[in-house]
Amino acid sequence: MRLLLALSRRRRGRSLLARVPVADELAQTLASLGRYDEPERARALGFDADAVIARGRALRRAEGRP
Amino acid sequence: MTAALGGLRADACVIGAGAGGAVVAAELAEGGMDVILLEQGHRHDPDGFTARPPQMLAKLYRDGGQTLTVGNPPIGLPLGRGLGGTTLVNSGTCFRTPAGVLARWQREFGLEVSEQSLRGCFERVERALSVSEVTPELAGANAAVARRGAERLGWSHGYLRRNARGCVGSGVCAFGCPTSAKQHTGITYVPRAKHAGARILTGASAERLIVERCRAAGVRAQLTSGVSFEVHAPIVIAAAGTIHTPLLIARSGLGSRSGQLGRNLSLHPATAAFARMSETVDMARGVPQSFYVDQFAEQGIVFEGIAGPPAYAAMSLPLSGARHAEAMSDYPRLAQLGLMVSDSSRGSVRSLAGRTLIRYDLDDTDLGRFRTGLARMRELFEAAGAREVYLPLPPGTEPDRARRRDLRLMAFHPLGTARADARAAHGVLDGDLRVHGTGGVYVADGSAVPSSLGVNPQLTIMALATRLAFHLLGKEVPCHS
Q1: Quick one: which of B340, B331, B349 has its CA closest to B446?
Q2: According to the model, what pLDDT value does residue B2 have?
Q3: Measured between CB atoms, does B33 come within 8 Å of chain A?
């Protein structure tokens, strides 16, 4: 996975990946996953992972959930 | 290295704490048996969940969620790992086995199962997991888009039943439920098993089953630390999942007589389309899988809701470069729907140089189902008022011209690799889910299921595990209704 991501960040790597569609698709998927996981970017799109987790933790504590 | 772990002995040893193993372990322990439950993964504390897909994929899934089939096309097959197995990371959808499927099992596989005979098992599981239908409010706006399209087209649809209690629609079922609302087996059946006295060993990989004179004698296993140990038990239940149970049975030199071990792999290959709507959808608010359209179920095509946070959407949005970035900038208005095919293709599982090889090629019939399904999905989104529809196909490719390699597929619900068939020449297990020709070795996971279900299988696996447990206890399943 790390290799794929490293290749996708380099011009020569990208041209190499383009020859193997499955690897290219996987590299693009992983890159997108990482990019939109950044908290600020996600928050700008309306998703705040920290808030989701905080709400979950509060609910579990308040109601004695596992 | 072999070290004694205090001479482990039990009445029954269960391998795997997912949908099947956790259920059978709890029922046996509560029924008075001394049970040891081995789980390769670990217990996942909800305090360690982050709602961030990359971190959770690495933590909760086998191979970081990147398990791939080999074939045309290659297909991602996400599998959970830990107490709860895939129930830890699935969407929680609960369907009973369709009556038509049970009739087929009777007719083609000689299995004595029917809606009537399994009713008590289903009711017991549904009570244990608090199964109920999602409300429209909790389903959220993503489901409302699909519902609007289905209603305008007059297509059959409904809200799904799920194993959740006190769900607030966190939108990250696949990445660890932060509220513990999802009643996965790691927080339901596993604690019950423990409370009833079962010993639970996590980080314990089963290496092989020990069989003496054609009867189960125990399990040889290894801890993550490298310490090997044996559990001595006259009853062994393999529940390591459809991919790994057949490999375990094969490593143990069992189940090969019919030639069916590791074969007959059935999946629900799936894909998903996006639509850009005028209204705000905020797909991560609400239950991701809450709604279905079964208008084409007879043709093997079902639509089910699917959604997730931006990172998840970004990795499945079928665009690239500037178009991808532009569509993602409008994430709050993106809607998504999944297309699941009840397959006629069949694959296989085997071990090659110590690695698991999952072979699966999509056949012509299933390719046709995807072509039809994608065209219908576009129709649905357009009826719902979509401004743009993004099908998971290369630019300029119409659904009816799609080739296998054009499809971007994931697959779920692997089944059938140690299928049950009353006839020893045709199946690995008998009607009681015992390995043909071997006393005391049973299977309680998806590998026992002899055919594709067309619906999410967790309830079927749990009901069959319940049936097996009460068979081993020599008792009737208590009637709740």
Answers
A1: B349
A2: 43
A3: no
- Per residue in B267-300, pLDDT tens? 999 999 999 999 999 999 999 999 999 999 999 9
Residue B426 annotated as catalytic: no
DSSP assignments along B131-154, one per residue = EEEPPHHHHHHHHHHHHHHHHHHT
Q: What is the per-residue pLDDT across B209-225, written as a single tens digit (0 to 9) for each?
A: 999 999 999 999 999 99
Among B74, B166, B313, select the one facing A22 at the smallest CB separation: B74
Q: With 0-12 CB in 10 A as exposed, 13-18 as middle and 19+ as buried, what is B127?
A: exposed
Q: Whole-angstrom Cα distance, residue B18 to residue B27?
A: 14
The domain locations on chain A are: 1-34, 39-66
Tell me: the pLDDT tens digits for B10-68? 999 999 999 999 999 999 999 999 999 999 999 999 999 999 999 999 999 999 998 99
Residues of chain A with Cβ-Cβ distance to B166 below 8 Å are 59, 63, 65
B325 interface with A at CB cutoff 8 Å: no
Chain A residues with beta carbon closer than 8 angstroms to that of B404: none
- Residue B224, chain A, CB below 8 Å: the answer is no
pTM to 2 decimals?
Answer: 0.94
**Pure H helices in B88-135:** 99-109, 115-128
How far B329 CA sits from the closest chain A CA (Å)?
7
